[in-house]
Fold this sequence. Notes:
Layout: E1 17-21, H1 26-32, E2 37-39, E3 42-48, E4 54-60
Parallel strand pairs: 1-4
Antiparallel strand pairs: 2-3, 3-4
Amino acid sequence: MKLFLSEHKGDARPDTLLYLGVADVYPIAKEFGVEVEEAPWGYEIEIRDPDANRLRIGMPKRASNNG
Length: 67
């Protein structure tokens, strides 16, 4: 996956949310030291970058049951 983020003024405001869908969120949660949260649609984590933008990373419930 390639992800390009713009640095142009006015393209995004602080506290922007980027959602990334992945096959397995658990290794990512472990790497960042955060707990996986269960939502009705799947399992997710949320982290913030140095500019306070939110990065939500999740997988659907049907993808894994690795609690």
